[in-house]
Every structure is written in C-alpha cells, then in structure tokens.
Amino acid sequence: MSATIRTLLGFLKPYPGVLPAVAVLGLFASFAEGLGIVLLIPFLDLLTGGEPSTDPTGIVAGALSGYAALFDASSRTAVVGLTIAALILLSCVVNFVYLRVLSTASTCVAHDLRTRLFERFVHSGESFLEKGAHGRQIKAIDGAAHRAGQATISLCLLLVNAVTVLVILSLLIAISWRMSIVVLLGIACAGLVVRLFVSRSMAVSHRYERHASALSDATVQVLGSLRMVRIFGQERRELDRFTQLSEALRRDEAKLEIVRRSMAPLVDGIAAPLLVGGLVLASRADVGIAVLLPFLLLVFRLQRHAREFDVNRVWIAADAGAIREVAALSVRPAHHSEPDDRPVGDALRDRIVFDQVSFVHPGGDGRAPSLQGVTLEIRRGETLGIVGASGAGKSTLIDLLCGLRTPTTGQIRIDGVPLDERDPASWRRRIGFAGQDADLLAGTVFENIAYGEPDAATAEVHEAARLAGATGFIAALPHGYDTPVGVRGMQLSGGERQRIALARALLRKPDILVLDEATNALDNATEALVRDMLERLSGSLTMIVIAHRLTSIRHADRVLVLTGGRVVEEGHPGALIDRGGAFYELNRLEAVR
C-alpha cells in the first residue's frame, strides 16, 4: 500500500500545490463544520432557557457560553443560530472549492499519464514493439490512466478525511474525553478490519489488470487479423477464447466491486453498537441533552469521515494494479527520437559505412544473429540493390540504417560521423521510405501522401503522385485526392497502397530513398513505369532497393547478396551473373519460376 501511495505522489509531482491546498481547505472546512455543531451547546441552552449543561471534564461548553454572552440577551439566540448556519454554509463552500481542485488535479493527472503512455509507445524501439502486447498499451491508455487519475482523488480525499477525523476527535475530547474513548475504540476496530480488505483488494487488482491486458491483446489481435480468421473459419474459436478471457475479467471485477461497496455497511455495523455504548456511558455520567446532542452529531460526522477514510484506502488498493501498470509502461524509453542537442549534420556528402556491424535480437532465445560482421559502403548518388532469401537480414540492415535499432557490435558512420552521435529524428528526415506493407493511416489520399511533409503544397503532392505512377488511379477514385483510404488503407488495392507509399517517400525529396519490396504488388506495366521513373532519379539521390523481383535492380550500380546475415557477394549485377555465384543462382531460379 505504501508503494502505491508513493507512486500516486509521483503522479502528483507536477502539481505540488494540490495536496497542501486540499489539506488546508479540508482543515478549514472540517473546523468550520465542527465548530458550527459544537455551538449547538449554548444554542440549545438558550432555547430551553436553562443553565449550560456540561460534562464535568468538558472544556468547550464554558468557552462557547462565553461567546454567547458577548451579545445582548434579546438577540443572543438569533446571533448564535446565525453563526451556526454561517459556519456550516462556509464549510459547504470550502468543500465545493476543494472538490473543484480535486477534479482538476485528477483529470490533469489522467491526461499526463495518457500522454506519457502514448509517447512511450510512439518512441519505443523495435524490440519493444516486437513483443506485441499492443492491447496492454491500449488498455492502459484508455482505462488504467483514468483509474490512476481517479486514485489521486482517493489519495487527496484520504488526506482530507484524516484531517477531518483529527479535528472532530479533538472537539469530541474537548467536550467529553470519557465518551471519546468509546469512539476511538470503534475507529481502531474498523481500521483492523480494513487492513484485511486492503490486502485482498490489492491482490485482486493486480490479477484484474493481467486479465484486462490479455483481453485487450486478444481483441487487437483478432481485429487486426479478421480476414484470416474468417478465411480459416475460426470465428467460433476466437469467440470462445474471448468469452473465457472476459469471464475471468468479470469475476475479478465483481470481487473488486464487492470489496469496494461492502466497506460502508461494514464500518456502519461496527459503529452502531459502539454508539449505543456511548449513549449508555453518557446517561451514567449525567450528561445533559445540550451537550449530548452536539456530541452525537459530531460522532455522526466523524463516523462518515472515518468510513470514507477506510473506503478510500480500499479504493486505492483496488486500483493498485492500474497504478502499477501505468507506472511501469510510462517510463521514458531509452532511445527517444525527438530532436535533441546532438548535431543534425548536413545532407549526405560522401558515403555511409557499415563497419563490422552485427545485430542480435534482444531476448532472441539463442537465435542466430540477424546480421554478422557486415562491412560495406554506400556511396552518395549510387543505387544499391540488396537481395537474399527471407530472413537473410535485409530489413534488419535498413532498420539499423534508419536508427530504429542499434548495432550489437560494430559501428555505422555517416560521412565519418558515428550514427549514434547524430540526432536520430533529424537523420530520419533525410530518408524516404516505402515498404512492401505500405502502411497507410485512416484519412484521405492527399493526407497520406503528405504525411511526412504536412505543409507540402498541393502541386508538390500531385507531382509526387505523378512520379509514383499514382495519378491515374487517384483520378478514378470517387473524390480523387479527397477519397478516404479506410483503416490501414484497406479500401485500396495492394498496388494502389504501394504507389501512395512511394509518392509519400518521394514527396520528402530525400537524400536517401529506401525501397523495401515497394513494388511487389504492382502489375508489370505499372512496375515498368515506376522503374523508369527511378532510373531517371538515379544519380540525383542515393537509392537502396530491397527486391525479390530481380528486374527491379537490373540497373543498380551495385548489388549486395545477403545469406544468413552475412554479405556473400557484392558487385555490379552483370559482373555477378558472369561470376556464376549466389546472384547468378537467384536469377536462374527466378527465370525458372
């Protein structure tokens, strides 16, 4: 519980004034409320016209009777009554103010956590993304951050309740310390019971978060692969799996709700017999009604705040899983890709050098390295083709070049400067990328082409589309460039998505154009048009082309052949064919197909 509270205090760190403000306002409100109730002692005496009735050990009644004596006898009753009303009204106003403070702080904390979680997700390295658990991220952003924000309210209310209990207890002791002993016994008994509920709540809360993450992951996985699920006829299987996960989550949620909602009646059940005991004690001590009634009202208010204190403890424990989940996921990533104070560097002037670069996937469970001792140079203005079987290390090499991964050993240098000494975000802005998956975002055709350059002029977007051979199919769309592409571009064909992705890469006017199987979904005629365009661009920028269709790299200046993460051949395409090695064999196999 203490660790959970420390985490909540960390969430409130950007708002250092919240807890002191809440404590002061709570103290002021509880004191005003308590004093208003205690003033009933002289008020009731005035109404009954009798002498003040006091417990022999009490010190409050005499002081308050002295306050009433300050006023003329004809107006004394009215003044004391108005004072009571004013104090209680003041308490209500202060309570409203601190509730406003609480609501603002809690929503700000939830906003901060959501933003931090999304930032963590956006800037995470490839190894983090490969672990999957995207549902866990979505669940944390959507639900756990909100619950953590609500838990800060519980923490602040816990403080207010504690302050209020101390103030009311002080007033009760001042009225009658004997009857106050009974009240303290009741609070102690309730506290012991609540400790059991807190432990139970924290255990269920952590299990609830695990089940919620599993349910979110299953949802994301199925929604992202719904076409495959339907093709293989596995709808019932996935529905049964979802139902099982949802039922486990339901059971945990029901347990949490029972624990949360049972605290109020439980504390009331403990308080009732103790209240009766207090009344018996008061009758034996010959305490007058003018003292007994305010005492009972204070006990009633104390019971409410003590109950809320215990309830808030349980609520914080019930949200402990969400709090821990958010804290774990919102840690700032080690490789942050926002611009920093490292040198941006000029455009590529000479060459890119891979010097004995190897890469092993973190947590690879003994898998062989994706790249092993790769040494190569990519000269400015040349077109480099990279070929190899699936798993040869082609995409890993590109990820390393783009700074999405860091070499396990070796070094990458840009014009002699190590890549890890350059600002990664600025370096990536010099790279245009179009891949075989053609990732598109929900939006229009125009918005997707301009995604990397949102301030690009309309004419520039249209020119990029023309270079990518996309103007024909765009003109045939219902709304042209304003046509929505759907989620992940699914309203377009694979070839159409690839041409938009290529236009998006060309719009950046990059120093380095990376094409990772970027034309494999194009028909032969369209691929020929794109290939002719790329050949015209050859020499004006550096191109790296990863291809399975070897026709895509027939005009490359050099070809790199990767096998098992190693460079096995390198040279001009024609020379490699004449050599009769690995590249020749790839050409022969493609011709056979």
Please give a handful of descriptors for the protein shown.
single chain, alpha/beta, ABC transporter transmembrane region fold, Rossmann fold, 62% helix, elongated
Segments where pLDDT lies below 50 for 5+ residues? 51-58, 337-345
What is the CATH architecture assignment of the largest domain?
Up-down Bundle
On the 0 to 100 scale, the average pLDDT is: 77
Tertiary shape: elongated
β-strand amount: 5-15%
Number of strands: 10
- How would you classify the helix and strand content by structural class? alpha/beta
End-to-end Cα distance, whole Å, is 66 Å
Query: Class of the largest domain, according to the CATH hierarchy?
Result: Mainly Alpha
Domain unit count: 2
Instruction: Please count the helical segments.
Output: 21
Q: Strand count, sense and closure of the main sheet?
A: 6 strands, mixed
In the CATH hierarchy, the third-tier topology of the largest domain is known as ABC transporter transmembrane region fold
CATH superfamily of the largest domain: ABC transporter type 1, transmembrane domain
Strands in their spatial order, largest beta sheet: 6-7-8-3-9-10
The gyration radius over C-alpha positions equals 36 Å
Q: How would you sum up this structure, described in words?
A:
With 593 residues, the protein is an alpha/beta fold. It has helices at residues 2-11, 18-38, 40-48, 60-68, 73-122, 126-130, 134-175, 177-224, 226-231, 235-284, 289-318, 320-329, 394-401, 424-428, 445-449, 458-467, 471-476, 494-507, 524-537, 573-579, 582-592; strands spanning 351-359, 371-379, 383-388, 409-414, 417-418, 431-435, 512-516, 542-546, 558-563, 566-571. Helices cover 62% and strands 10% of the residues. The strands form 2 sheets. The protein has a 6-stranded mixed β-sheet, sandwiched between helices. Strands 2-1-4-5 form a 4-stranded antiparallel β-sheet, with helices on one face. Helix 2 (18-38) runs parallel beside helix 7, helix 5 packs antiparallel against helix 7 (134-175) and helix 8 (177-224) packs parallel to helix 11 (289-318). The two termini are 66 Å apart.
